[in-house]
């Protein structure tokens, strides 16, 4: 939607900006109208089946009220101030108040994206990829907004208030026995129609006509294969928003068709790759841990090359409790094999792959066998705090842990790397940490740069910075698995899973403040928001080859008393 259309929609209708822009902040303090996730199915019945994507926003006060249990007093003041300023702007621009004008009747919002109509003119001209050709024209998808009506009397009062606004004119158009209201404000008109318990809005009259046709019996978004079963049930607890993409490859193709320039430049192999993902539903909800997002992707098992593996999670217990951030998973060698196989269909990837193999071969190493081939078990990459040695300036170092069933090949690889380092005037030193023999690369005048060693028969580690090796190799203290913050942030995520992304926000904020003070300190508003977050965690699972689940949690701190 162009900027001019957005202004029309806000000034003439007063719904999109108020609901989509302020409902989260408003509900944080005020609560709001009913309209839970069960209303999505009803809204989808008036959305034409041509829609390639739809988003439903809940306005159920019980759901949004969950946010009230989180946040520091500083963060609450910031949100309250932002809400007040927003309401002032809305009142000044359109004399519309969410609490007085919208809250009494709005019962949930669905926003759908449809292909542009054949009569819709191109909205944007872009330079052609070929300078000898004229500029290419692009079109934007049509937008249809469906708002549930929980109180028709209050909805009528709101419509009458819009008609009485200065500079706003309305005209009624008959279409198949129903009225379409054309509302003109400061620019192009906007069209609305009441369809039983829903009111539809669109900047194009033909889009509203399509919605009326759907209401009268034409195929709807709700009738699309695989859509109806997921519309009325949320994928997360206390759903506040949910996105539906019933045909992912079709949606991508639709968007590509709208931009001929992209269509010309996109290799056919890329579109074939996208066809692996058949459909997707993603939900955002609020529960006792914070804000949670889940996505369910349905895959084509015939096209998926990578074989998903669950991770046992042992690597988490091999990292120190004060770890700042961590990524873990399973089977790098399998990922690499899938990438190599798929590169055969992509000449540009194949070229990069061959160049990488050639560069590694100069170091007498085989990229496939001696770098990635032995990484067949769990792995992790982590940032760990340290203020010693060469890490004193940055405050942290890095650690990599790999489980392998082929220790012999891994040892050969590290021996070759050590020999290569010697030719670069790097001192190779052996030392013992907690009974473990560690190899250390030392730079004259700078100290330890890289270390590597074995934690047990099947586990090798590499660190950036000598002090990190001590944190990994010594068994003193608690592990990340024992960290209360790690338990808080990841404890409610689905298990078993394929590994984690984990971020400790307190430790991250400390590092951010450390670097910020060198130039300018963080704004108080930013610090207050960061201080309200425990951390972020993400994981994936795959019940079978045709389904993948992704879950992310923004873990929030409980409201201070």
TrEMBL record:
InterPro entries: DUF3352. It holds the Pfam family DUF3352. This is Metalloendopeptidase. The lineage of its organism: Bacteria, Bacillati, Cyanobacteriota, Cyanophyceae, Nostocales.
């Amino acid at each position: 939607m162009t900027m001019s259309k957005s202004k029309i929609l806000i000034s003439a209708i007063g719904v999109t900006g108020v609901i989509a822009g302020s409902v989260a902040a408003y509900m944080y303090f005020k609560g709001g109208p009913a309209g839970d996730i069960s209303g999505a199915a009803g809204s989808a019945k008036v959305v034409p089946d041509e829609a390639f994507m739809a988003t439903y926003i809940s306005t159920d006060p019980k759901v949004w009220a969950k946010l009230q249990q989180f946040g520091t007093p500083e963060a609450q003041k910031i949100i309250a101030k932002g809400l007040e300023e927003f309401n002032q702007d809305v009142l000044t621009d359109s004399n519309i108040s969410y609490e007085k004008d919208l809250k009494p009747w709005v019962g949930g919002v669905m926003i759908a994206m449809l292909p542009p109509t054949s009569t819709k003119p191109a909205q944007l001209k872009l330079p052609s990829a070929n300078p000898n050709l004229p500029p290419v024209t692009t079109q934007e998808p049509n937008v249809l907004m469906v708002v549930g009506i929980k109180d028709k009397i209050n909805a009528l009062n709101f419509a009458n208030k819009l008609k009485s606004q200065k500079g706003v004119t309305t005209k009624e158009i008959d279409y198949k026995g129903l009225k379409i209201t054309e509302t003109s404000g400061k620019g192009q008109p906007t069209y609305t129609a009441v369809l039983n318990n829903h009111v539809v809005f669109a900047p194009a009259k033909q889009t509203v006509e399509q919605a009326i046709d759907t209401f009268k019996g034409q195929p709807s978004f709700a009738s699309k294969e695989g859509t109806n079963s997921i519309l009325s049930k949320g994928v997360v607890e206390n759903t506040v928003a949910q996105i539906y993409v019933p045909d992912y490859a079709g949606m991508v193709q639709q968007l590509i068709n709208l931009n001929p320039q992209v269509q010309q430049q996109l290799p056919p192999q890329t579109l074939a790759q996208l066809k692996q993902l058949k459909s997707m539903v993603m939900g955002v909800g609020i529960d006792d841990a914070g804000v949670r997002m889940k996505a369910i992707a349905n895959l084509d098992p015939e096209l998926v090359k990578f074989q998903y593996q669950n991770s046992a999670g042992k690597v988490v217990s091999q990292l120190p409790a004060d770890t700042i951030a961590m990524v873990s998973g399973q089977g790098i060698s399998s990922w690499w094999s899938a990438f190599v196989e798929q590169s055969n269909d992509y000449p540009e990837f194949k070229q990069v792959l061959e160049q990488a193999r050639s560069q590694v071969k100069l170091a007498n190493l085989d990229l496939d066998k001696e770098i990635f081939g032995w990484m067949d078990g769990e792995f992790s990459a982590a940032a760990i705090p340290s203020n010693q040695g060469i890490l004193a300036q940055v405050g942290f170092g890095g650690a990599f842990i790999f489980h392998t069933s082929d220790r012999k090949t891994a040892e050969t690889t590290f021996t070759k790397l050590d020999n290569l380092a010697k030719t670069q005037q790097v001192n190779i030193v052996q030392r013992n940490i907690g009974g473990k023999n560690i190899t250390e690369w030392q730079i004259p005048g700078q100290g330890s740069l890289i270390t590597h060693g074995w934690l047990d028969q099947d586990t090798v580690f590499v660190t950036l910075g000598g002090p990190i090796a001590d944190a990994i190799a010594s068994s003193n203290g608690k592990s990340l698995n024992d960290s209360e913050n790690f338990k808080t942030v990841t404890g409610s995520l689905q298990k078993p899973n394929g590994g984690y992304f984990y971020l400790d926000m307190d430790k991250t904020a400390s590092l951010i403040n450390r670097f910020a003070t060198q130039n300018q300190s963080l704004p108080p508003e930013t610090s207050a928001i960061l201080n309200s977050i425990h951390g972020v965690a993400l994981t994936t699972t795959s019940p079978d080859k045709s389904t993948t689940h992704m879950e992310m949690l923004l873990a929030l701190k409980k409201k201070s008393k």
